[in-house]
Amino acid sequence: MTEKDVQAGVAGFQRDVRRLRDEVGKVIVGHEAIVEGVVMALLAGGHALLEGVPGLGKTMLVRTLAEAVDLSFSRVQFTPDLMPADILGTNVIVEDERGQKRFQFQRGPIFANVILADEVNRATPKTQSALLEAMQEQSVTVSKTTYKLDPPFFVLATQNPLEMEGTYPLPEAQLDRFFVKLKVTFPSRESLHTILDRTTGEHNVRAEKVVSGARLLELRELVRQVPVARAVQDFAIRVLEATHPPVGADDKKPTPPLTRKYVRYGASPRGAQACLLGAKIRALLDGRFAASCADIKAVARPTLRHRIILNFEGEAEGIDPDTIIDSILAEIPE
Predict the structure, then answer these.
(1) Closest Cα to residue 69, out of 152, 179, 11, 181?
(2) For the chain, what is the mean pLDDT?
(3) Which member of 21, 62, 131, 290 lies 3.0 to 4.6 Å from 156 by CB, making a disulfide possible if both were Cys?
(4) Model confidence, pTM
């Protein structure tokens, strides 16, 4: 790409993403950081997990994003009695015009571009695992037959905090498949005023489609083309390594005290991949065609927090993985 092409690509990226965020912001109030995180996952080709108590607008955010992009949308309400076939689909017996019966695959709601997995941790682990292949391979296997999912494929899952009644913790393998985990907090008083004005008045605000599926794939391609200096990539690797406690012969290696004391397992290589892709997206949004260590730091929390597994002491003391990530960023030199 020539310098002129790069400048045009970055400007187009900024313009289209700003339109998408502004359109979502017409409906969603007070969650700018959450909207940015969800859009970042969408642009990176990953999936997003939103955690928060009921009533904070998690489902509305996902619905609004689906309305702002010209893609097919499907919602799955996860409940304890939901079965994998309710998500993936199943083979049913059909009868043709000659009276002959045969099996025909009836597709489930997973066959869409944007999937809302609502309250995903209220289903049993067996049903939760139905999403694993789709999220990683973008395909579904039923009765030894594999069906490809149409790109772009994007899962937005919402979950309630684990201390709430009737929840099942997501397995580590499934958490690792989410590009980011975003914490949805209670809105400010000013935001509540705006929410009440919009939701109790005469007119309901709806988002309009501003980005097509083809354009979204183009934006994803541009993200992949952003260069990363070796030193920046090395910084991301050192941050990832610092999430791992020393084991055996590595016991003498320098490790942040909080990691050594409270962490059982650190983040997987997917964490470093998510950090780099997130840093590239932040660079493009800032008008730069090169990622920096500051970009890595900015995306470290949402991309790593769900990949750090605490030990018994960490869970007993209620340690927040964000605190561990902050200590790592403070100690690891750029």
Answers:
(1) 152
(2) 87
(3) 62
(4) 0.87
